[in-house]
């Protein structure tokens, strides 16, 4: 190779490796959710890829992979070290307005944090953008139900405690988290195999700066798909007062949980905006992962006892 090119090619190759790792090509295996293709999927939305523009928002000064045109949903298992493994697992739902997935900021980076506290991160690549007519986001809910059930079905094989499988999501993924937390009794698709016969109810849920939960034009009543009951799983909420997506999403969802006597913990912060993931900044809200760890410990989810 021409030595003159080396200084230019080395950083380029390094960037490509990092990018492919974030997508999962150099990381955990991408496990297809649906053996014969996703239900109601026509695959006419274009090629999957990173939609980030050069001038895109950079939380904590770092760029974000904005994965778009997802028609082949998958999960990928990020495993903690055996010395830390608690047997707990969390399905992680990145946000992005149901248009894209903030795949590293609210996905791979979150799974790595979960690994640090002994939890298996199950990164869900659900279908985006929203398809015409899917106003209640049924297609992402199909993917989330399938993912949760698939993890529980394979729990023994994957070394996971079937009674410690939660869901965590950001923004639109926070809505998906709440949607799954209240819509698990019946699959919103025709069952395809034995995995669809097991429960897809999360054992706990963490909607982080969730969107679309409270309807501003209807006096902040909850979105109709969120019928909170005593069987809604224990929930941990985070949001800031200056969130442009509206802090009322967390406030009114928490109130519904309280009225249904669902164990819930809510952390509200004065500043921080929206879309920070868990990247640290000078805003106190970015300490939320520590609060979430404490909450999970209080529920016994991080004890190292196996089932």
Task: List the topology elements.
Layout: H1 6-23, E1 31-32, E2 49-50, E3 66-68, E4 74-78, E5 89-93, E6 101-102, H2 104-116, E7 120-125, H3 138-153, H4 155-158, E8 165-170, H5 172-182, E9 205-208, E10 214-215, E11 221-222, E12 235-240, H6 248-259, E13 264-269, H7 288-298
Parallel strand pairs: 5-7, 5-8, 8-9, 9-12, 12-13
Antiparallel strand pairs: 1-4, 2-3, 3-6, 4-7, 10-11
Helix pairs in contact: 3-5
Instruction: Provide the succession of SSEs.
Output: HEEEEEEHEHHEHEEEEHEH
Oligomer: single chain
Query: What's the overall geometry?
Result: globular
Mean of residue pLDDT? 91
Count of DSSP-assigned helices: 7
First-last Cα distance: 56 Å
CATH class: Alpha Beta
- What does the main sheet amount to? 8 strands, mixed
Find the count of extended strands (DSSP E, 2+ residues). 13
CATH topology, by name, is Rossmann fold
Written account of the structure:
The chain is α/β, with parallel strands linked by helices and 307 residues long. The protein has a single domain (29-298), classed as Alpha/Beta hydrolase fold, catalytic domain (Rossmann fold), CATH 3.40.50.1820. Helix content is 28%, strand content 17%. The protein has seven helices and 13 strands. The chain has helices spanning 6-23, 104-116, 138-153, 155-158, 172-182, 248-259, 288-298, and strands spanning 31-32, 49-50, 66-68, 74-78, 89-93, 101-102, 120-125, 165-170, 205-208, 214-215, 221-222, 235-240, 264-269. It has an eight-stranded mixed sheet with strand order 1-4-7-5-8-9-12-13, sandwiched between helices. A hairpin with a 5-residue loop joins strand 10 (214-215) and strand 11 (221-222). Helix 3 crosses helix 5.
């Amino acid at each position: 190779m021409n030595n003159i090119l080396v200084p230019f090619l080395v950083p380029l190759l390094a960037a490509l490796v990092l990018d492919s790792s974030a997508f999962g090509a150099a990381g955990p295996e991408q496990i297809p959710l649906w053996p014969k293709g996703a239900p109601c999927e026509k695959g006419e939305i274009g090629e999957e890829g990173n939609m980030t523009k050069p001038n895109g928002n950079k939380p904590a000064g770092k760029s974000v992979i904005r994965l778009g045109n997802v028609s082949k949903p998958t999960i990928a298992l990020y495993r903690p070290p055996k010395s830390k493994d608690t047997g707990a697992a969390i399905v992680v739902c990145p946000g992005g307005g149901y248009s894209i997935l903030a795949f590293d900021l609210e996905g791979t980076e979150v799974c790595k944090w979960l690994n640090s506290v002994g939890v298996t991160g199950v990164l869900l690549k659900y279908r985006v953008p929203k398809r015409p007519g899917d106003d209640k986001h049924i297609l992402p809910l199909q993917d989330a139900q399938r993912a949760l059930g698939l993890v529980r079905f394979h729990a023994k094989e994957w070394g996971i405690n079937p009674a410690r499988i939660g869901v965590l999501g950001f923004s639109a993924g926070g809505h998906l988290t709440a949607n799954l937390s209240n819509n698990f009794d019946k699959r919103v698709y025709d069952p395809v195999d034995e995995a669809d016969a097991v429960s897809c109810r999360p054992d706990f849920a963490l909607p982080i700066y969730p969107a679309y939960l409270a309807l501003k034009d209807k006096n902040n009543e909850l979105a109709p798909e969120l019928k909170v009951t005593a069987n809604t799983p224990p929930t941990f909420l985070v949001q800031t007062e200056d969130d442009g997506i509206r802090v009322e999403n967390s406030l009114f969802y928490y109130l519904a949980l309280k009225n249904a006597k669902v164990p819930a913990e809510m952390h509200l912060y004065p500043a921080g905006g929206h879309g920070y993931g868990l990247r640290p900044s000078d805003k106190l809200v970015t300490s939320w992962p520590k609060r979430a760890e404490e909450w999970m410990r209080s529920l016994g989810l991080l004890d190292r006892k196996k089932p």
